[in-house]
Amino acid sequence: MNGRRKTTRREFLAGQSMRDALAGIQLSAGPSLAGPLAASASERAAGDYLLRFGRRAMACDFQVFLRAEQRFGAVEAATEALDLIDRLEDQLTVYRPHSEISRINREAGRQRCGVETRLFELLQRCVAWHAATGGAFDITAGPLVRLWGFHTRSGRYPAPEDVQEVLQRVGSQYLELDLAEGSIRFARPGMELNLGSVGKGYALDRCDEVLTAAGVRDFLIHGGHSSILARGSREAAGDAPGWRVALRHPLRADRRLAQLRIADRALGTSGCGQQFFYHHGKRYGHVLDPRHGTPADGVLSATVLAPTAAEADALATAFFILGPAETGEFCRTRPDLAVVFVLPGSRAGTVALETLGLEDGELQVLEA
Question: Which of 130, 190, 267, 311 has the fewest CB atoms within 10 Å, measured from its CB?
Answer without folding.
Answer: 190
